[in-house]
Structures are given as structure tokens and as C-alpha cells.
Amino acid sequence: MKINFFKVIITFLISLLLSYALYNIQDSANKTFLSFASFVLFISTLLVAICIDFEDKRKTTNLKILGGLFFLVFLSINIFFGIINFNISTYITLNGIILLLFLLVTYNLIKAKLS
């Protein structure tokens, strides 16, 4: 497994800018929570989608597609929560379940023996 640190910096900045955009969209008291939580979700998926490479190209391709799909899921969910006034417990529950599912599938893909 190789990690490209230049891509990590770019990924960090992309996640930071998207979180800042969500901070500006939200008008309620939850805007700081939304921006921090969305940053964590964006960085976790974009790191897998952009920064990590394996020697096995199939594994790398599968992980990049998985990270990209979950990034789009988190982006759409966070835009939705940015538009409406939301309950924090609902936000944590929904995004927590999806993040744990992402981590589980990512772990299984990393440990899989693809031939």
C-alpha cells in the first residue's frame, strides 16, 4: 500500500472547502457541527478514493470506485442536511451507519484475495 502525500494535501483542502461551503449554506445553530462532521466524512472517503494505491490494480480500482461512490453519497446527504434544519441525533445515526458500512466494505476489499 502506498500513500501519495501530495494527494493527501489536495484531498484535505478539497474536504475543507466543501465543509466551508456547507457551513455557509446552513443557517441554524448546527452549522459548526455540520461542517466539522462533513469534513470528517469527506476526508475519510476521499483518502480512499484518491490517495491510496495498492500493488494489485484490481484492488486499487475497486477501492477508488467505492470511495468515490460513498463520497457522492455523503456529499448529497450533507447538502440535504445543509438545506434543512435537522436534528443532530438523526444526522449522527444516518451518517454513522453509512460510514461504518463504508469502513466494513473497505476493510473486506483490502483483505480480499483478488485473482
Describe this structure as you would to a colleague.
It is a single chain. With 115 residues, the protein is mainly alpha-helical. It has one domain (2-111). The chain contains 4 helices and 2 strands. It has helices at residues 5-25, 31-51, 57-83, 88-111; strands at 2-3, 52-53. A two-stranded antiparallel ribbon has the order 1-2. Helix 3 packs antiparallel against helix 4. 25% of the residues are buried.
Structural category is mainly alpha
What is the domain tally? 1
**Spatial order of strands in the largest sheet:** 1-2
Mean pLDDT: 93
**Dominant shape:** globular
Quote the beta fraction.
under 5%
How many H/I helical runs? 4
The number of strands is 2
Helix content: over 70%
The succession of helices and strands, N to C, reads EHHEHH
Computed over alpha carbons, the radius of gyration is 15 Å
First-residue to last-residue Cα separation: 17 Å
Low-confidence stretches: none
Task: Characterize the biggest β-sheet.
Answer: 2 strands, antiparallel
